[in-house]
Structures
1.
Amino acid sequence: MTRAGRRRWLWRTLTAVFLAVIGVLLWHQFRQLDWPEISAALRSYSVAQLAPALLFALAGHLVYACFDLLGRAHTQHGLPVRVVLPRVLVCYAFNLNLSAMLGGMALRYRLYTRCGLRVDTITQVIALSITANWLGYTLLLGMLFIAGLPTLPGDWPLAGSVQRLLGLGMLCVPLLAALATLRWQGRRWHFRQHRFTLPGPRLCGAQLLLGSANWMLMAAVLYALLPSDHSYPTVLAVLLTSSLAGLVSRVPAGLGVLEATALVLLRGENDQAALMAALIGFRVCYFLLPLAGAAVLYPWLELAHRRRQAGAHSSPSQKRHQAPLS
């Protein structure tokens, strides 16, 4: 077997292993869910309740996909928007449901390298995306903590003045990021084998805007499914706090952690049955339905790549009939 043949065989083997790992993780994730309970919760909602939640979920995923468009503008890598968006949407769905290392990192490297991007460019795009997400998070939760939201139980270590001090500390993060872009805009620095260029204040402002919008739309999904006897700022604060608990616990998708935290923080404003139904509906709309879409879209992207590879080895007359990058 020639060297090129061995390389193709190796890549095909790695692709098969990668797809098998994704399949096992998906099966493990879906197996933990109580599908009869999910079905009953969804049937309890009217179209008028579900439609806004689904629209907010779609908007949230699209806003997150725009994080990578900021990276596209900053690195000037030139991939068309129609190529970037489906790949980011797939990665985000896997990121939410499985883990950041799989969806946010490994899958992004795989899909982007297949489009011809260099590793250092992909690393910078991912770094800008992560920064946008957490800049928006710290900005929102910092302001809400200072305002005393959510109302934490007295026996929690963050309750009272500690909550407000932590809020002030969180607000320092986006402030320092903005000052850094003003002071060192365009400065290049190295981390291990990766090179990064610090963005300017305009891009930092776009990161704050999109990062905040992403979390606010996510909270809007839950807000649309809850009964009307609660406020949106409270729901946003509860979601952000629950997400922090899920991050600390390191449970994929915060499964169970998000629900348990929200049940404690919102139990005074809603009955348990309605609250549990809203949390299940939220997970279906924002986590599971996008995951189902990504499970269909990802094999299509793999198949499209295989066809482009086959076209690269075909004759010039055959290449004219190959499908464009999609």
2.
Amino acid sequence: MPIVLYFSRKHENMMNGEIRSVDMGNTAMIANKIAAQLNMDAIEITPINEYPENYQETVDCAKTEKAKQARPKYKLGTFDLSKFKEIIIGYPNWCGTYPMVIASFLEDYDLSGKILYPFCTHEGSALGTSMDDLRESCLNFTIKQGLAIHGSKVAKADRAVMHWISHIG
């Protein structure tokens, strides 16, 4: 049985070219759909310093973090990762790849021998370069087929999630 880990951001989000305020981030919605299908909990990777509520300020912050290759600190629920061979990991596509808080997680945990199933939410750039970036950042695990869900379509993504889960094993 895999573990579902994710980073998501609520507040202002871009959806269909418009900024909208949301109570739950798009990636959190998909993580919860995946976890429900697998009858388990999804565990959130929560930055210690929360990103701004304002969409453009968050975009600027994400660009700065990526340029500096920052490694934001985060909180994560208590669990024993060694008990899991498969990790389903989710994130929004920021600046064409995964956010730097995900890079922090990848560096902090030994994923040697693990199988990683990435999923992301986006507003048009799908998985971006995140699959290649994952391969470059962690050479000792296997990356399988990823899932990209358009952020404005997360509420109606149940079939896409079920289809993806049926193909990941």
3.
Amino acid sequence: MTFPLGTKTLILSLLVCGTLAGCGDNSALYLVEPPLPGEELPNRLGRVELREVVLPQYATAPEVTMQEADGALRAQPYALWADAPAAAVTRVLAGQISALSGATAVPEPWPLSQGPDRELNIRVSQILAGADGLFHLSGQYFVTPVMGPGRDVARSFNISVPLEGQGPAAVAAAQARALQQLARQIAALD
């Protein structure tokens, strides 16, 4: 079926308005905000450019999702992430790595005149609030030298933290704690 150009524009506009109206005043936005680390690690990374974290497809949605007893991941009605998930995870990890170790960890693109010493790539295979009452974060990270000497580092991570409470706020808090643990592992190059 074909529509005249004006009709297509009208239909698209109505769909966009309907979608935005569905996210109206009843929606809550959730931040992933880990506390500042209470420890200091040696700076093993120097200046490191953090590539945008690669998340599994289900974790890129704007809605907070939780796993149900049947294994299905369900979006929580009116519960949205305050920032795009990959960008938020990348920003949190860069901030936590810097705070933990004194490294200059910066999300891409590199903004400083002197280039990075290393590049950090993180590929997440699982990031979810499980039906088992735990928040799961697993995958791999890769640190590669950009300038000067160094060696490639490739490590796996498998982190689980308890969900303290229920609902989207508990998911956001557990995700923050899991990301803080991952940042510590990366900063220590464990």
4.
Amino acid sequence: MSVNKARIFKAPEHVTVTGKSIFLAGSIEMGAVEDWQTALTAKLAHLPITIMNPRRDHWDGSWVQDISNPAFKEQVDWELDSQDRADVIALFFHPDTNAPISLLEFGLYAPSGKMIVCCPEGFYRRGNVQIVCDRFRVEFVDSIDELTARVIKKLEG
């Protein structure tokens, strides 16, 4: 039986990084796609790492998405700060989503050297993602299983 060693933080919790850290970026679409962040967290829980998950337990879809909304600003700032702090950013583009914020974050952090991108067949901008990954030497994989294996290898290395 494996012991849970990871420290897990969800937005908007205050994050204290211990050991290596990972940010789980990518498609959320609350309720529209599977909660891949929780599944990946379970597979990483045995590692002595810090996991930052932007999937907020109490998201309010009616929030005005504007800088004047303190709750919305807190969420976006938490995500950007967490990605800045992370050693690894695991980014998943679910094929059933458009993921405009994930594409924005991809553009921001592709040159950082800390991304691993999973973009399965069927994502509507897969070619663009492949080309940016090639340009910035970002690890690119086709499945969540490959993403999990690469993330574990990078965090253990």
